[in-house]
Amino acid sequence: MTDRKDIDLAELRTRLETRRAELLAHSSHSEDYRKPVELDQQAVGRLSRMDALQNQQMHLEQERRRAAELARIEKTLTRMDQDQYGHCHNCGDDIELKRLEFDPTTPLCVECADRVSHV
C-alpha cells in the first residue's frame, strides 16, 4: 500500500527510533520522582510534603504523556512495517508530506483531522 516515492521512510524511521530511545531514557531517569511521597510529619514539614506531592503529580503526568507518545511511535513503526504508512486511516488518501515531516506519527490527513477535531 505504500507506493509513495515522496516519503523518505528510512529518515522518518530513524527519527522515530531516536525519539523512542529518548523517551525511554527519560522514563527510567524519572522513575524515582514518581514513587509515593513519604507522609511522615516528623521528618518533613507540611509545605515540603505539599511540594513533594505536586512534584510527584507533575512527574506522573509527564510519564503519562511519554507513554502516549511511545504508543503513537510504536503504532507508526508497525504501519511502516506493514507498508501502510503515509495514508489516512479514515479516507485512505495520501497524507501530505509536510504533515508527515512535522509529525511522523500522524495517522490522518488534514481534512479528516479537521473533521475529528470539530466533533
From TrEMBL:
The record's Gene3D superfamilies line, in alphabetical order, gives:
DksA, coiled-coil domain (1.20.120.910)
Keywords (A to Z) from UniProt: Metal-binding, Zinc, Zinc-finger
Entries under InterPro entries matching the protein: Znf_DskA_TraR
Entry's Pfam families?
A: zf-dskA_traR (PF01258)
MF terms from GO for this chain are:
zinc ion binding
* Annotated Zinc finger DksA/TraR C4-type domain residues: 85-117
Instruction: Output the PROSITE patterns linked to this UniProt entry.
Output: ZF_DKSA_2
Per the record, the zinc finger regions (dksA C4-type) lie at 88-112
Q: Which domain of life is it from?
A: Bacteria
Coiled-coil segments on the chain, per record? none
Tell me what this protein is called. Answer: Conjugal transfer protein TraR
What is the native source organism of this protein? Thalassospira lohafexi
Taxonomic lineage? Bacteria, Pseudomonadati, Pseudomonadota, Alphaproteobacteria, Rhodospirillales
